[in-house]
Structure to design on (268 residues):
């Protein structure tokens, strides 16, 4: 007779490492003496030796796990073929799930790269995500609204675009992340076109019509001109595009001409 614990033991047997997602202190302490423990979370509150920082608390657990593993791969903590036990919390603040994952280059989604190896500062990327997610949750005066943010490599992005109208950010020196700027961005999301944001988070322009070459851009069918332009500009430049869809309410991120991440603002 097999018992449930036998079956669950198989899940974590012979693993090469353990990934703890946002563990609390006392739970983390229980891993003292266990080898190759990597902590993944918003902050290293447990002072773990090996830590991968999450820029946003991905609601989708596969996104969370992918981010942690891709980060650890980048840091050389794990490699192809390693088998990991991922332990985290899904329904409560305590650890309540375990997943056995085999590290495989082909599972690399670019989600870690999106934040860490973009031209723009990682905090700028997360700040823009925050604005897009909040805009997606609340809309503009209760109505769904779309928005397109092109982040990083601003000089090149400006060269591949033209103004639709007077740029309200001309000569201003404001940065994403400032609370007042977030209000302005939301206000101006009614305008057509894209926001262009520099590597350091300066709002360079609103109202930009992007004119990238869309050749070789591989974005899912069914998405319209805003997403096509957003995706394509990231192939033509080293920018990252963060797009809020007015029609389905999702926030998507593109890099290198590819759709990397899709988030539902209602889950954040
Ligand atoms: N090349 C472009 N550059 C900048 N903004 C654009 C471009 N093309 C479209 N947009 C903006 O996107 C808006 C919506 O266009 P469209 O409906 O075709 O896009 P979409 O991808 O379907 O986005 P949504 O899901 O929000 O409807 C336009 O009103 C315009 O403001
Ligand atoms: Mn549309």
């Amino acid at each position: 007779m097999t018992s449930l614990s036998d079956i669950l033991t198989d899940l974590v047997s012979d693993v090469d490492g353990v990934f703890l997602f946002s563990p609390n202190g006392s739970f983390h302490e229980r891993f003292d003496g266990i080898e190759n423990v990597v902590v993944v979370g918003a902050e290293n509150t447990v002072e773990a030796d090996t830590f991968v920082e999450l820029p946003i608390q991905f609601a989708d657990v596969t996104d969370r796990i992918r981010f942690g593993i891709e980060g650890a791969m980048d840091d050389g903590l794990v490699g192809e073929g390693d088998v990991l036990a991922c332990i985290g919390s899904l329904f409560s603040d305590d650890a309540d799930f375990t997943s056995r994952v085999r590290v495989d280059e082909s599972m690399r989604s670019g989600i870690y790269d999106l934040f860490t190896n973009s031209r723009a500062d990682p905090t700028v990327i997360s700040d823009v995500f925050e604005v897009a997610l909040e805009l997606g949750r609340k809309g503009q005066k209760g109505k769904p609204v779309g928005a397109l943010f092109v982040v990083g490599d601003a000089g090149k992005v400006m060269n591949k675009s033209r103004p639709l109208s007077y740029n309200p950010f001309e000569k201003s020196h404001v940065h994403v992340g400032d609370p007042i700027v977030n209000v302005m961005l939301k206000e101006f999301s009614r305008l057509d076109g894209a926001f262009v944001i520099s590597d350091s988070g300066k709002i360079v322009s609103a109202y930009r019509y992007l004119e990238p070459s869309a050749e070789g851009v591989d974005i899912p069918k069914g998405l319209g001109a805003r997403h096509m332009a957003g995706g394509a500009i990231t192939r033509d430049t080293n920018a990252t595009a963060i797009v809020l869809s007015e029609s389905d309410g999702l926030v998507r991120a593109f890099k290198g001409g590819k759709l990397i991440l899709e988030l539902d603002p209602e889950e954040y």
Observations:
- The CA atoms of residues 116 and 122 lie 6 Å apart.
- The pocket of manganese (II) ion (ligand 2) is lined by residues 224, 247 (CB under 6 Å).
- The two ends are 44 Å apart (CA to CA).
- The longest strand covers residues 203-210.
